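Course assignment 3, question 2. Fill in each field.
Student: A.L.
Task: Predict the tertiary structure for the chain below.
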Amino acid sequence: MREEKMPNLGRSLARAWARAALVVACAMVLISSLASTSWGKPRYRTLHTFKQTGASLPFAGLVADLQGNLYGTTAIDGDSQYGTVFKLTPNGHGGWKETLLHIFSGRDGDQPTASVIFDAAGNLYGTTGGGGDYGLGTAFELAPVRHGDWTEAVLHSFNAAEGIDPTAGLILDAGGNLYGTTYMDGPLGGGTVFKLAPNGHGGWKETVLHSFNGADGGNPRGSLIFDADGNLYGTTTGGFTSEGTVFELAPNGHGGWKHVVLHSFNGADGSSPSASLIFDTAGNLYGTTPGGGTFGWGTVFELAPDGRGDWNETVLHSFRGKDGQSSFTGLVFDADGNLYGTTIQGGAFGQGTVFELAPDGHGGWKETVLHSFKDRPGSSPLGTLIFGPQGHLYGTTNGDQRTTWGSVFEITP
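Answer field:
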């Protein structure tokens, strides 16, 4: 079984690397979401190193509970090769203990490459890009039971008619409904936005809210976010006629949803946005692109509503290579309005960076590289960062998949 799985795994991971759509929007960082931070000379520390013989290749970022435990996913496991959901617990002596909450079997999911989220009862929800009844992806729930165990339930197995490859994370509304995206297929072939609603009988009903047709964008890789009015926002990497879009889906009052393209990228201002968006307190949207911009290495952008129904885009930063290259992840704010993110390449050693963007007081933004990755114990961060309670940043690295297999790290002011 393992020898037969490995060739498919290699192709799937190569595809996942090219997608790099592994964002952690709405990760529900329960311990703290905003912190005021003065970095000085940041300290980088590896909390956990993944090994090829165990759970490895964390493509997504983390989520934390109220006790400060960290949760995430790995794309593969040394035994099953189908992936895991893991928990890291502080051991009280400066170290962290890894616990595998679930190892996928293929039938219940294969290669989870997005982060998980919590509901109010402490259950975890996520997606897998493959596996399930049709081998095309699943949405799953993990529920805690006695003695530290967790039970998994497959909420939905995706098929080509409704969209496949749900590699982005899920989000929850106040009614307990789940929302997400599929990267491909669906009624019009360009991927979908979907809703999963409890059916009242222990199951879940899937509804396609929007199917992309190429002309209105296509192949969404990032998670969704809500605004205060219940509208959904997300990104697409392209479509047949563009280099990616930012879109809004608004309930139309008749049970349907209206799709509006807020911005189409043209390369000069970025291309192929592959991550989720975030709002600031004024209602402006922020995101990243892995390509395009002044130097072709990607951008950080802002979309601001003009009050007349249109949105104006501003490129806040174009990566130059030495300060980072290709950001496939979402952003996070601190309490002072500074933005933080990662790039999978570039930096001092070409292995990726953690960066900060701070308003300069004159309408611009100043970028600071907080850390440049260098081979061991991890490189090429693909997950969105989260803040801990003391203003520390936490994230994951993917590794080079030859000598390193990923890590969890902390950056301390």
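Instructor remarks: The first strand starts at residue 43 and ends at 49. The chain has one domain: 22-412.
Grade: pending
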